[in-house]
Design goal:
The chain is α+β, with helices and mostly antiparallel strands and 177 residues long. It has nine helices and seven strands. The protein starts with a helix and ends with a helix. The structure holds coenzyme A.
Length: 177
């Protein structure tokens, strides 16, 4: 979707997004409500990555790096996690979500902390997609949120697979159809 909405300067957008979301990712991790899936059999490509349990080797001056090259330069066993995305269309889309949501906000909005988890995007490394990792984490999160006493999770999705998993958390795709 993003490739169609913003076809220009994609490599630069990727770097800009990475730089811009640093504080948001830190805040999400510090919330204690962010989860990730790690490949326990990951073979580090470089010894210096092993020393830090993972490293990123993007050269942000390389504005023609392909998505395959960018993926190859992520030497880290973290393969699936929540993600935040920053693109011009992003704000417009979220505004639209709120316009089309006809529920009475009082029926779901939190009145204080510890009630509703406002979930951000989720992402799986391209070479680990289709293995059920995003679905597994969604199921984990539903159980974890209930165990911690939350009464709901707010999820705004931008991908049909995420839509499917959150709309039908207890069904497989063929059941849902
Ligand atoms: C979207 C994304 C997170 C999916 O991650 P993933 O780990 O490959 O997802 P899973 O393997 O867990 O998904 C499996 C489920 O989605 C379903 N699915 C996959 N593609 C689908 C599609 N196009 N439409 C409907 N359902 C789909 C599968 O059938 C499966 O459900 P099932 O087990 O009930 O049959 C991943 O492709 C990604 O990171 N994309 C780029 C970033 C992005 O778009 N993030 C989402 C923003 S909300």
């Amino acid at each position: 979707m993003w490739a169609i909405a913003h076809p220009d300067n994609q490599t630069k957008r990727c770097y800009d997004m990475y730089n811009a979301i640093d504080y948001l990712v830190r805040a999400a991790i510090e919330s204690g409500l962010t989860y990730g899936v790690f490949d326990k059999e990951w073979m580090f490509k470089r010894p210096e990555s092993a020393a830090t349990d993972g490293a990123l080797y993007w050269d942000q001056t390389d504005l023609i790096a392909t998505s395959e090259q960018l993926l190859e330069q992520i030497d880290c066993p973290l393969v699936s996690i929540y993600f935040l995305e920053i693109f011009p269309l992003f704000a417009t889309m979220h505004e639209h979500f709120h316009t089309i949501d006809k529920r009475d906000p009082k029926s779901w909005e939190p009145t204080g902390p510890g009630q509703i988890i406002m979930r951000t995007e989720t992402s799986t490394r391209a070479d680990y997609e289709g293995m059920g990792l995003m679905k597994l984490m969604a199921h984990w999160e539903i159980k974890d949120a209930a165990a911690k006493g939350f009464r709901g999770i707010n999820m705004e999705t931008l991908h049909l697979a995420v839509d499917h998993v959150w709309m039908y958390p207890h069904k497989t795709k063929s059941d849902a159809n």
